[in-house]
Write a structure and sequence with these properties.
single chain, binds 2-acetamido-2-deoxy-beta-D-glucopyranose, mainly alpha, 5 helices
Length: about 230
């Protein structure tokens, strides 16, 4: 009786061995099969990341270029106005212009400081945008790094007694990896919008400078013109 029971159990164990244990081995093989997908998801991500960073930095460089153009144009206008006033001064009696020399020195000094102020403000905010852009790249990149291949073995089930659900988990892992390849385009779009916004703030700062400068130049000129008029009367 005891022997019969033993033989019965042995038969069950043998049957289970041949039906279920191979599923466990298959599961390990399946995981090996998804390794190329895993590798390719990494490759795609790294390549995209590299291209996207290059693109973002290209945008940054053309932003610098445009900003320098804005600054150059503004400087030219300011210097022209200064030269005009000096030329006018050369055509009139000294005493009608003498006092304006100090006024002119003072307003050009102010303009120089204002230029620094405008560009400093711009530089600070761009630093922040660039840091944010890099941060977003690394957060996106990390999405694909979250897959630890071996986790499937300790998360859902026991590989020896219940390998079936393990197989499910493995096939799901494959789909997840492909779906999670990050799209970095949004980061570049946001970065471009940020740069444009900062550039328009910089333009406003230069416009403010221009308005104050022009008003002061006009005031100085009027002062001289009135003096000349008085001389003629
Ligand atoms: C800067 O912009 C000008 C046009 O405004 C362009 O001709 C020049 O090639 C640009 N330089 C760089 C380094 O992008």
């Amino acid at each position: 009786m005891k022997t019969l029971l033993f033989l019965g159990l042995l038969a069950v164990a043998n049957a289970q061995y041949s039906e279920v244990r191979h599923i466990a081995l298959d599961a390990v093989d399946k995981l090996r099969e998804i390794l190329p997908d895993y590798q390719s998801a990494h490759d795609i991500t790294i390549n995209k990341l590299y291209e996207s960073k290059q693109k973002a930095l290209g945008e940054l460089n053309s932003f610098y270029n445009q900003t320098l153009t804005l600054k150059t144009n503004s400087l030219k206008v300011v210097m022209d106005a200064e030269l005009n006033l000096l030329n006018y001064g050369n055509t009139i009696e000294d005493w009608c212009f003498e006092n304006n020399i100090w006024g002119l020195m003072s307003i050009t000094g102010w303009a120089g400081n204002k230029y620094s102020e405008c560009i400093k403000k711009l530089d600070d905010s761009i630093d922040k945008d660039v840091a944010e852009m890099y941060e977003q790249f690394s957060v996106s990149e990390a999405k694909i790094q979250k897959y630890s291949i071996f986790e499937v073995f300790f998360k859902p089930s026991n590989i020896i007694s219940r390998p079936e659900s393990l197989a499910d988990t493995i096939s799901k892992l494959k789909i997840d990896i492909t779906d999670d390849i990050p799209d970095f385009d949004d980061i570049i779009r946001t970065f471009i919008i940020d740069l444009r916004e900062k550039q328009s703030q910089y333009t406003n700062c230069l416009d403010e400078l221009q308005t104050v400068f022009d008003d002061e130049i006009q005031r100085l000129r009027k002062f001289s013109e009135e003096c000349v008029e008085e001389q003629n009367n």
